Amino acid sequence: MRIKQKRKTTIIKLDDINAEVTQKKIKNLHLRVCPPAGHVRISAPFRMNQEKIRVFALSKLCWIRKQRQRIRNQVCELTDKYIDQETHYFRGKSYQLKVLENNCSPFAELIEKKIFLHVPLGADTKKKRSVLNEWYREQLMESILPLVKKWEIKLNVSVERFSIRHMKSRWGSCTTKTRSIRFNLELAKKSIECLEYIVVHELVHLLEASHNSRFKALMNQFYPNWKHYRKELHSLPIKV
Ligand SMILES: [Zn+2]
To answer: Are 226 and 136 contained in the same domain?
Structure first.
């Protein structure tokens, strides 16, 4: 007599990410990252052994992280309304927003526990977002400059230029050929330690272009807690 096979669900750990594995009567392995929280779900054939599934999923870890970031950014863009008492993050801390509509030129400022957003009368969400982002950009530039200088000296490297961009799936990137570095604007919302980790990571690329064992050894040497901050950046959604 044949025993009818049912589905079997288990959780496997991929670095700091939990993936839900459902084994059922299918031929191929499927992996997907689901909105809104970026849960990882894997469907696998019943007979496939767990280790094989894990190895496959680990080989996709980079892609999984990018998808998670992309999904979370989308969710964030959809949920921010830029209204009074809405929570916004700056340098790892939460602040309440206070929107003031007036006729002066738009700007944002931080006073005690609140971010004041001065916008023209009748400004829409898009306008408010751009005023706040402009402020984030100025603040981030202020925090990044001394960090880049500090780590240029420590690592004995020189950065040709750096810029701050909106990026969907990465916290930073480095083009070693031109020694130029790009930082994600969202870093303005993260703690200085997380920002410093990204600065060190991108500058270490000027010594070692790929994420190989030499790269990891350099990170361990210069910023021993880097794994902790990487986890913090990857485990929290952009907007908590
Ligand atoms: Zn890198």
So the answer is: yes
Q: What is the mean pLDDT of residues 26-43?
A: 87
7 CA distance to ligand 1 centroid (A)?
38
Taking the centre of ligand 1 as the mean of its atom positions, its distance from the CA of residue 153, in whole angstroms, is 20
Whether the pLDDT of residue 172 is over 50: the answer is yes
Query: What is the residue range of 39's domain?
Result: 8-78
For residues 55 and 89, membership in a common domain is answered with no
CA of 188 to the centre of ligand 1 (A): 19
Name the pTM for this structure: 0.73
- Please check whether residue 181 lies inside any domain of the structure: yes
DSSP-assigned beta bridge partners for residue 30: 43
Q: Are residues 144 and 37 in the same domain?
A: no
Residue 172 CA to residue 237 CA, distance in Å, equals 16
Question: Which amino acid is located at 176 in the chain?
Answer: T
Q: Is 1 within a domain?
A: no
Q: How many domains does the chain have?
A: 2
Q: Rounded distance, CA 2 to CA 84, Å?
A: 63
Q: Which of 78, 108, 131 is the last residue before a domain boundary? A: 78
Q: How far is the CA of 64 from the centre of ligand 1 (A)?
A: 15
- Contact call for residues 190 and 92 (beta carbons, < 8 A): yes
Asked which of 44, 63, 78 is the last residue of a domain, the reply is 78
CB 170 within 8 A of CB 184: yes
CA of 197 to the centre of ligand 1 (A): 11
- C-alpha 58/C-alpha 107 separation (Å) is 45
pLDDT digits (tens, 9 = 90+) for 174-183: 999 999 999 9
Residue 176 dihedral angles phi and psi, to the nearest 5°: -65, -35
pLDDT value, residue 1: 52
CA of 19 to the centre of ligand 1 (A): 23
